[in-house]
Predict the structure.
Amino acid sequence: MIPAPITILLKRLPHGAGLPPPAYATEGAAGMDVVSAVDAVLAPGARAAIETGFAIAIPPGYEVQVRPRSGLALKHGVTCLNTPGTIDSDYRGEVKVILANLGQEPFAIARGDRIAQLVPAPVQRAVLDEVDTLEDTARGSGGFGSTGR
Ligand SMILES: O=c1ccn([C@H]2C[C@H](O)[C@@H](COP(=O)(O)OP(=O)(O)OP(=O)(O)O)O2)c(=O)[nH]1
Ligand SMILES: [Mg+2]
């Protein structure tokens, strides 16, 4: 069964006027592609918070993840540095995409270029229960490659 879509409110900011809102490129796309509101050039090794020209209000109990586009990553080495970026449901500032250029060439972004994708997700919160001992397991404290290659 396909879960019903949640409603996210989107407020267009003045410098984002005229830009297309985030949108699904295909019927089955998981992410809504989001476009840049600015022209920018990312030098090799550089990072920047790229403005999108909108703010959103996500319903309580959800987040929006900001994820890279694989085409930009593969062709240009351009990715979201903090992937997946987290948009909190109580954030009302401008959504920004933290892009990093891990490639060898400068990467030019034009206003209107699709730079990332937004994926809403339910958030499972937790309460922490501080204890003196934790139940033992076969793994124990092994990790970071302890099971081999
Ligand atoms: O890719 C991102 C990541 C975050 N944000 C905004 C929305 C998010 O709700 C807020 C805070 O993000 P996060 O919690 O990841 O950053 P922080 O360094 O912990 O900042 P803060 O102390 O404001 O929570 O910044 C974006 O616009 N784009
Ligand atoms: Mg935070």
Notes: The longest helix spans residues 70-76. The helical segments are 70-76. The pocket of deoxyuridine-5'-triphosphate (ligand 1) is lined by residues 66, 82, 85-88, 91, 95-96, 98 (CB under 6 Å). The radius of gyration is 19 Å.
